[in-house]
Amino acid sequence: MLYVFHGTDTKKVSDHASRLVSGLLKKKPDAQVFSFEGGDISESDIDALIEAQGLFVEKHIVVLKQPFVVALSRDLVLARLEQFAMTKNIFVIIEEKLLAEHKKAFAKFAEKIEEHSQLKTDKEPYNVFALADALGTRNKQSLWVIYMGAQRAGLEIESIHGTLHWAIKAMLSASRTNTPEEAGQKQYSYTKFKKYAGNFSPEELVALSRNLVSLYHEARRGKGDLKILLERWILSI
Asked: Of 164, 156, 227, nearest to 196 (Cα)?
């Protein structure tokens, strides 16, 4: 079964998706929830979760947050929409702005699809990718200032976390490949993230990615506040 939440109002999108997951867990409190950020899911992961069944509970809940930020994960998702719709497990996709062709593809298979868009204003939208650039240049002071600015602009802490993790994953992909096509990136992005990756050792990038995933799950388990955990992560760079 497939549910899709998307739109430029990321707070509403996140809130409505979280409400759905909470409601499902009330009905099936023993269900396992698997959550993936950006391009963090592999083909083997996604196929295993389509077929998986728990030992004591029939359904799993799989949350895919912004899988379209990386071309490879976007293509994995689009190729499996019919399987998501047919499986007994529940797939919840959370995205920002979708192209018309992708909306059409989701509408064909989704049990429910919701779009939440911000009203247009004269105010310039916050450039969330400035976070990725400050991280890539390894400028801690700049990253901290932009991070605080993002919060003042109203960005959800989960969105900030997702952008930072996406940037780390993009640097890892660029550093491990020889062409934009291999990395699943556009030429401009590939060149930029390849350069940024040179500011870190491969081991540092892996550790940063692992720590971001870990602190997110710690916050979900109630072992810390995501905002504070993310601030410590930024100061550790």
From this structure: 164
Judge whether 170 and 189 are in contact, CB under 8 Å.
yes
The per-residue pLDDT for range 172-220, each reduced to its tens digit, is 999 999 999 999 889 999 999 999 999 999 999 999 999 999 998 898 8
Based on the fold, state whether residues 53 and 141 are members of the same structural domain: no
Token pair, residue 94, equals 């959370």
Q: Which long-range contacts (CB under 8 A, 24 or more apart) does 186-193 make?
A: 192/136, 193/136, 193/167
Pairwise CA distance, residues 27 & 101, whole Å: 34
User: Of all helices (H) and strands (E), which one includes residue 93?
Assistant: strand 90-95
CA distance 103 to 56: 35
Answer whether 4's CB lies under 8 Å from 112's CB: yes
Task: Identify the three-state secondary structure at position 236.
Answer: coil
- The answer to whether residues 186 and 210 belong to one domain is yes
Report how far Cα 14 is from the mean position of its chain's Cα atoms. Answer: 11
Contacts for 33 with CB less than 8 Å, ≥ 6 apart: 21, 25, 60, 61, 62, 63
Domain that holds residue 28: 2-115
pLDDT digit string (tens) for 140-178? 999 999 999 888 888 889 889 999 999 999 999 999 999
pTM: 0.58
The total domain count for the chain is 2
Give the Cα separation of 214 and 229 in Å (integer): 10
